[in-house]
Fold:
Amino acid sequence: MAIVPVVNRESEYEQPGKAAGPCVMVLFGAGGDLTKRKLVPALFNLVKAKLLRDDFAILGVSVDDLSLDQFRDQVTGFLRAEDRETEAWKWFTQRLYYERGDFADVNLYSALGKQLGDLDRERHTAGNYLFYLATAPKFFASIVQQLGAAGLCNQENGRWRRVVIEKPFGHDLESAKALNREINSVLSENQIYRIDHYLGKETVQNIMVFRFDNAIFEPIWNRRYIDHVQITNAETVGVERRGGYFDNAGTLRDMVPNHMMQLLSLTAMESPVFFQADAVRNEQAKVLHAVQPLDSEEVLHFSVRGQYGQGMLDAESVPGYRTEPAVSPESRTETFVALKLNIDNWRWAGVPFYLRTGKRLAKRHTEITIQFKRTPFELFRNAPFHKLHTNTLVIQIQPVEGISLSFGAKIPGPVLRVGSVDMSFEYSRYFGADAYTGYEVLLYDCMMGDATLFQRADMVEAGWSVVDPVLDVWKALPPRRFPNYSAGTWGPKDAEELMERDQRQWRKIEA
Ligand code: BG6
Structure:
């Protein structure tokens, strides 16, 4: 059953948007992968949407020895062919500047100070700077310290200075706290924008709209009606060129304290009193603090880890994790995680949240499943055909973006038969294909000073608090049977058993 659009797309969804104020975006890691894949395409989309003003500039920083023209050519190479040589491209490339330097070198920061002063004069950027750290995490604290020492973080006379920090933010609770302490010694919390690109996804932002802008779901969004919640993030990719990073991190650190916890907190949080950064983040932090930390015994029962071996994906043979580039042939790093978590509050007591995420799984698919309880009494249990069903609400995050609700229906015919049907909404049918990378809204919000979609220190630490006990037990008890799932499957058998022990199963995702 499909819902027919009732609004005129052109007139009702056009969003004028106010252009961000004057500023220079200082991009550390200007030649890196993130800049190439996400940041440049996103900035260019903001240019096309006219959300950047004339008094805007980008100052790229990296160790590469490039002239300004070479840097502009490099950035042009990060754009799609059809975007090059256009009016928007001309506008964009004229605003690109470059500073070569070593992030650890104090001289870089005095050179930056000078260039920024020049840009303020030439480009009228008003002394507002957005420092974006698209670098390896080992540079985060030292770049912030050096910016502080060079006086570049001082906000005076109405100027703003903000710092965007990419993930991973720490590698456990202790290191995340230490990093927070270091950057908080230079910056106030409202100058720090800790990015989690999941919050840039339309469907993730829509969880809040769905829950809090509709009257019919919230009354049933609790332990009285919901049996359990499943959050699945399945990737078909392996570690690609990131073996060096990934083999030290593993899926638990890479995905759970950040992306999976964002999905969990938006699904489980209470309604904020305002749609404003701290009100929203207070509620997210509150529910993350309510996630019951697992004790050592519970880690053994409620957590599953896996590593992929060789297998078949899309009819092609793909190598096992241990033979991926830059991965140790004896690696014990997990590429799959499943967890059962409980939330200690009135709304969710007794409602388990099952999380699973992994690489080289059968299908790329991210979703949140809200599994409702059965009816208290089965009126149609004696019907000749009665497919047992429960109402399921599925929020699909990617690659298909949408929401569907399944419910029981009478199958037409003279004999009473009951089956299960779906009512579904797909983003692309209403709003067309999404041309955005997800970083547009995040970059725009930093420039506008809206931190709603960014993580506060307490949220990051709460995410790590959930993961830390699992890391400890896993470290003490190395896995014995890795690899334990074949590439192209849905992960190790233990993940199925985690559900079966509770007489439940993961929702079947069609391959
Ligand atoms: C990144 C992880 O943060 O998120 C990657 O480091 C992962 O390992 C990626 O592949 C998943 O993002 P998305 O948007 O493709 O689901």
User: Anything to note?
Assistant: The radius of gyration is 24 Å. Residues 167, 235, 254 surround 6-O-phosphono-beta-D-glucopyranose (CB under 6 Å). Residues 243-268 form the longest helix (26 residues).
